[in-house]
Each structure stands twice: as structure tokens, then as C-alpha cells.
Amino acid sequence: MAQEEFDFESFKKEAIAGLYSGKKMTGTDGVLSPMVNHFLESMMCGELEYHLAQDKLNEQINRKNGKTKKTVRSLSAGS
């Protein structure tokens, strides 16, 4: 599954500028949100690839049906 590259240098510049401007560090609009999002998506993608590879080795039929955008709601986000 192709995933866009995370540009840490531009993230770092935006994070520092955001903190100086008074932006929150955490939360859905927080400074760390893009990095956490990239980390979680990479982790889930890797886990899915691992499970699919294991199923293929065990000659079990399993596959991905595609990729769609999803929104995860949490208690801390308020909705």
C-alpha cells in the first residue's frame, strides 16, 4: 500500500510556528496531530500487510478491498 512520505522538517517548522502562535499541542487541531496521524496510519498499514502475508503463507484467502477515508470519533474530541 503506497503511503505519502512524511516530511519531518516541514512538520518541525510548522509545529514550532504553531506553538509560538499559541496553538494547542494535542487534540484534533493540535500541533502534534499530523505526526500522530502519520504514525498511526503507518502502524495500521504495516499490521494489515503482516496479517495478509501470514494468511498467504498459510494458504488462506484474505485480501484488501481498497482504501477509503474514515473519520474516527473519540470522547476527547467531543463528538
TrEMBL record:
Protein name as annotated: IS256 family transposase
Species, as recorded: Elizabethkingia argenteiflava
